Each structure stands twice: as structure tokens, then as C-alpha cells.
């Protein structure tokens, strides 16, 4: 049996109306930076008022920062850290989806440092490659979507538009607490429910074929894949189907643990390159665009045939016998969720961009290529982009 070394210190409070238990958890400080998106969803779904009520019950003051957009940028993180410092906050609360949680853990890391520049800690061609010298502030994740698994991992994916980089920033902390309340996800629109659900799915699919896989990662990945295959179409069809919302939310959190215990592979690097240049592209949508050709590439290499048969069965194709059956199962799920006709060209991506994207993906997130089941060349990665292009 191979050795594995796992560390996942976040206390997870999961279930319907679990936000109402926030006040029962030990306080992390006296003044919070409460981070939300620049939209109005947390106001409309009542989660903002509920969170403020929980803080009041604990006697905790807060400062609201609501400048986080989808594909959060380095400048927004730097602004949040500045506001946190100026107001003397001693912990951070993320109330939102993956973008808000990723930004919040970077803010929590940056506030105590002796620099205002987030990219000093970016391990990328444009980054400073520094390691934080000061301990990050603690933070709480209250997730309102089921897609990134960011509530239980220490990865913070941030974009730097000027450098065309979208990467994981170094030195970010795990959340002290994660509140996963499926009631907060009921108002997510169908298309974004699908995009987010497929992001969670790809975390586990990639982890399962990764060379980093182990007994712990396989345990969470199997359950995550099974739940998404069975329940995501229901959640897309009816956002008030709470059994489906719960199962997809659970799968998302498990897929977060997949990234902690194993790793994503180069598919995620490839999508990050796409949305680094085209920031209006939803992350999950970009992954869906790549997915069939990406996994077909590995199937044709025959480096992990048995694992593709396993994953086909996890997705519900119980009679799967050959790796290609996985592609059929994945395509069927995409059709069931109404995301089988997504096009790169709709977001301004051109076929001739393939090599630029391939080089960007490898240069900015090499560690995910290292996790692949076998080595690749830039030409092979560019070929995947070209075959996936529509």
C-alpha cells in the first residue's frame, strides 16, 4: 500500500439550515471582514441578514466588503486586505460561492503581511514567488454554491488580467469552519447550477486519474462522482429539490477533499488559461467545453483504462466494460443538464489561440501537469484545444 499524508483541518457543519448554528461555534475574533460578491444574491436569498444575525448573537462587529466579481482579480483582494487592515479586523468571513471564498482566503493571508501586493506570493512567471512571513488571519467559509470545494481546501485561484495569469496563490489558509447549507443554494439559476456541478465533478474525475490518487482520495471521489451523476440533473431541473441540492452540495465538499488528498490535473490548468484571457467565461463552462476531448486524449493513451471504466460505472453506466464507455456516460450527463452545446467561439476564443493557451496553462500551473497520469507536450495540449473548439 502506498503512503499518503493527509491534512484537512476545517470543521465542517453540513445540512439544511446549518447557517443557524454559526453562533454555536467558538468565536474566532471580535471584528470580522464580511466578504460577499458585487451582486445581490446574498441579500435576495436572506443569507446576508442571517449571517449578520449570527454575528450579533456572538457580539461580533463586522465590516462589509462586496467588491468580489466572478474570476476574482488580484486588485480586489488587495483592496479587501487594505480595508481589513484599516478597520482592524481579526478574522474573515466568506459568504458566497467559489470566487468569494478564494478571494477571502487570499485576503486573510494578505492582511498581516508586510506588502500590499498579492502577486508577490504568486508562483508564476509574473509572480514574486515569496512565502508569507506572517501567519494568516483565520477565516470562515459560508458557501452559497456547489462547485469549487473551496470551503475545505487551501487553494485560492485569483486572476491577474494584466499578466494574463489565473493561478493558485501560495500560503493561503484552510478555513477554520465551513458552513455548507443547501438552503442557501436554492436560488442559484439552473445554468450556473450545472456549471458549478460540473466543476465539482471534474475535481473528482481528474483526481481519480491523477498520479496523486490514493485510498483517501478515491474514497471521496467515488461518492462525489456517483452523487453528481445521479442528482445534478435533478438540481438543474428543479432548484427547490432539496434532496438533489443536498447530494450535490455534499459531492462538492467531497470534491474539495479530492484536491486536498490528491490533485486536479491539467484540464484545470487548461481552463484557467482560457478564462485568464477571456474573464467573462464561467470556469465550469470552460471545463465542460474541454472535457470530452481532454478525457478522450487520455483514453487514447491507455495509461489508466481501468479507471475510466470505474468512472463510467460511478456515473451510472453499470454495464461499462471499456474506457470509451466513460465518454458516453459523461456526454449523457451533459445532455441531461443542458450543457452539451457550449462553444469556445461564443466567448471570443479562436482556434488559432491553441498554442498560446497551451503554453500559458503549463507556465502558470505546472503542478497540475505534474499530477497528470503521464507526461504531455505543448503540442498535445494545443491539439486538445483544437479538437474541443467549436
What does this structure look like?
This protein is of the alpha/beta class and 390 residues long. The protein has two domains: 11-185, 3-Layer(aba) Sandwich (Rossmann fold); 190-388, Up-down Bundle (Dehydroquinate synthase-like, alpha domain). 48% of the residues lie in helices and 11% in strands. It contains 14 helices and eight strands. It has helices at residues 41-44, 47-58, 74-86, 98-110, 190-209, 215-237, 242-261, 266-277, 283-301, 305-314, 324-336, 354-364, 366-370, 378-388; strands at residues 11-14, 31-37, 61-68, 91-96, 139-143, 157-160, 165-168, 177-180. It has a six-stranded parallel beta sheet, sandwiched between helices. The chain has a two-stranded antiparallel sheet with strand order 6-7. Strand 6 (157-160) and strand 7 (165-168) form a beta hairpin. Helix 6 runs antiparallel to helix 7 (242-261). The radius of gyration is 20 Å and the shape is globular. The N and C termini lie far apart (44 Å). The model has no long low-confidence stretch (mean pLDDT 97).
Amino acid at each position: 500500500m502506498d503512503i499518503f499524508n493527509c491534512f484537512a483541518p476545517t470543521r465542517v457543519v453540513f445540512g439544511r439550515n446549518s447557517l443557524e448554528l454559526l453562533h454555536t461555534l467558538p468565536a474566532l475574533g471580535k471584528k470580522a471582514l464580511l466578504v460577499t460578491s458585487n451582486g445581490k444574491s446574498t441579500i435576495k436569498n436572506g443569507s446576508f441578514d442571517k449571517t449578520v444575525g449570527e454575528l450579533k448573537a456572538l457580539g461580533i462587529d463586522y465590516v462589509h466588503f462586496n467588491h468580489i466579481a466572478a474570476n476574482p482579480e488580484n486588485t480586489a483582494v488587495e483592496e479587501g486586505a487594505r480595508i481589513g487592515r484599516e478597520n482592524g479586523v481579526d478574522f474573515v468571513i466568506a459568504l458566497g460561492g467559489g470566487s468569494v471564498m478564494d478571494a477571502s482566503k487570499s485576503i486573510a493571508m494578505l492582511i498581516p503581511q508586510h506588502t500590499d501586493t498579492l502577486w508577490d506570493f504568486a508562483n508564476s512567471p509574473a509572480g514574486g514567488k515569496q512565502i508569507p512571513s506572517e501567519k494568516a488571519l483565520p477565516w470562515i467559509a459560508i458557501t452559497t454554491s456547489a462547485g469549487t470545494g473551496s470551503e475545505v481546501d487551501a487553494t485560492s485561484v485569483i486572476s491577474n488580467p494584466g499578466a494574463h495569469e489565473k493561478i493558485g496563490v501560495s500560503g493561503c489558509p484552510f478555513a477554520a469552519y465551513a458552513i455548507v447549507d443547501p438552503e442557501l443554494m436554492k436560488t442559484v439559476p439552473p445554468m450556473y447550477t450545472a456549471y458549478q456541478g460540473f466543476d465539482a465533478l471534474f475535481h473528482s474525475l481528474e483526481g481519480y486519474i491523477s498520479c496523486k490518487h490514493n485510498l483517501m482520495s478515491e474514497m471521496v471521489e467515488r461518492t462525489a462522482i456517483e452523487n453528481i451523476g445521479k442528482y445534478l440533473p435533478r438540481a438543474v431541473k428543479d432548484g427547490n429539490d432539496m434532496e438533489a441540492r443536498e447530494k450535490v452540495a455534499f459531492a462538492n465538499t467531497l470534491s474539495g477533499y479530492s484536491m486536498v488528498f490528491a490533485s486536479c490535473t491539467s484540464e484545470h490548468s487548461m481552463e484557467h488559461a482560457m478564462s485568464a484571457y477571456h474573464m467573462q467565461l464561467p470556469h465550469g463552462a470552460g471545463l465542460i467545453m474541454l472535457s470530452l476531448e481532454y478525457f478522450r486524449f487520455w483514453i487514447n493513451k491507455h495509461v489508466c483504462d481501468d479507471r475510466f471504466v470505474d468512472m463510467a460505472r460511478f456515473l451510472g453506466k453499470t454495464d461499462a466494460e471499456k474506457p470509451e464507455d466513460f465518454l458516453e456516460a459523461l456526454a449523457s450527463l451533459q445532455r441531461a443538464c443542458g450543457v452539451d452545446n457550449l462553444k469556445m467561439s461564443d466567448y471570443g476564443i479562436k482556434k488559432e489561440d491553441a498554442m498560446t493557451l497551451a503554453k500559458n496553462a503549463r507556465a502558470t500551473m505546472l503542478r497540475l501537469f505534474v499530477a497528470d497520469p503521464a507526461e504531455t507536450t505543448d503540442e498535445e495540449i494545443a491539439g486538445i484545444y483544437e479538437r474541443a473548439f467549436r
